[in-house]
Amino acid sequence: MSEQSLEGGRHGDEPAEALPAYAERVLDVAELIPPGRVMTYGDVAEWLEEGGPRQVGRVMALYGGAVPWWRVVRADGVLLPGHEQRALGHYHAEGTPLKEASRAAEGHLPRIDMRRARWDGGERAEGHT
């Protein structure tokens, strides 16, 4: 995810009509994830029944700045490179379960406790297509 995308709006600098339909759907799912919970890129693609982790990651990198981007994560729980401190602030504020980093871990950054933080999407949102 680029710094520009984190700072930009949901639709970046492009007009709303230029946002691809798949991107809109990915962003809608990101907004459904409750505070303190996460979904992986693959979980989002599976929930949508379309695309894959790379496509979801690309959408988040390009358009994810105005949605809770920190709730869409890598499957291993590693924090988004370059945005670790911002994400940690959100995780602490929301009470997202974290695993403390070992002393051997680079930068001693915690990881998301995927077993406890992962959200399965619950019931599909009304009107979801």
Residue share in β-strands:
5-15%
**Tally the helices: what do you get?**
6
Distance between the termini: 26 Å
Structural class: mainly alpha
- Main sheet: which strands, in order across? 1-2
Describe this structure in words.
Helices cover 40% and strands 6% of the residues. The protein has 6 helices and 4 strands, in the order H-H-E-H-H-E-H-E-E-H. A two-stranded parallel sheet has the order 1-2.
Structural features:
disordered C terminus; two-stranded parallel sheet; 6 helices; two-stranded antiparallel sheet
Give a short overview.
The chain is mainly alpha-helical and about 130 residues long.
Topology:
Elements: H1 3-7, H2 21-32, E1 39-40, H3 41-48, H4 53-63, E2 72-73, H5 84-94, E3 98-99, E4 111-112, H6 114-117
Parallel strand pairs: 1-2
Antiparallel strand pairs: 3-4
